[in-house]
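Sequence of ATP-binding protein (Clostridium brassicae).
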Amino acid sequence: MTEVEKIVNRIKSNMTSTDHTQDQVTQMEKSTSDICPICNGTGWELNKETRAYKRCKCYKKEKMQRLWKKYGVDPKDIKKLNDYVPIDEIQKEAKGKAVDYVKDFETIVGNKENGFGLFGQPGAGKTHILLAIGAALISKGIEVVYMPYVEVMRELKATVMDNEYYIKFSSNYMKARVLIIDDLFKDKLKNGNLVGELKESDIKHLYPILNYRYLNNLPTLISTECTPDILQRLDDAQAGRMLERCGDNIIVFTGQKYNYRMKKFMR
Ligand SMILES: Nc1ncnc2c1ncn2[C@@H]1O[C@H](COP(=O)(O)OP(=O)(O)OP(=O)(O)O)[C@@H](O)[C@H]1O
Ligand SMILES: [Mg+2]
Ligand SMILES: [Zn+2]
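Predicted 3D structure, token representation.
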């Protein structure tokens, strides 16, 4: 019996195994009706000819959902692009670009300019639009990983001593088919002004993710309160790469009028 066959048998017989506890937890949370028919809920699919096991596609899907739910977001019940009601030409343009991005994703992904960037004013709907794009791509069967910048950076910093976990955790973001980085560099700004600079920890934890994605031409969707100008002041070279990859899919919201959260106070 191969090592993998042993593992599969162990899961099937429901014994505890530290490596696969998460698989089991996920399985136990599910009712029998939605257990994957391909792998019987083991997460491993057997090739009958070669007798080799590989990860079942349900495993990737579940892993992706875990990464969203970990930060309190369920891709199934987030606001849609249709719920975004533009107040002017800029917001109309943002919505239009988002709709086209989803529609033409299969073509766009092969281009160098396959990113998407929303900049500026808090409350303008940057997160709303990016999450809506993410959910729409997921429903097309595309793997999208959500990375709330502050929370994920905190976890990366906290787990750096646990080498094995760190590498696994970081590579979720590095290698995601599509990555949404929400509120990039939030810790560097206060009221729209630059109050911090890049730290050694940013270079250590964030840059490997950005660099890997850049070199492998993987699409990254970014929301940030920074303006492109502030990004450039933080790090000219990295900002240049990010903006370059977004091509025309860049929107900058400038001014309080875009702050949806303040709407009820501004009549
Ligand atoms: N044009 C709009 N139509 C409908 N809802 C909107 C619009 N703009 C913003 N909202 C809503 O306003 C709230 C704030 O938007 P969101 O969190 O996406 O803003 P943000 O630009 O990401 O802000 P921050 O920089 O603070 O993260 C959300 O509930 C969002 O759905
Ligand atoms: Mg936001
Ligand atoms: Zn399966």
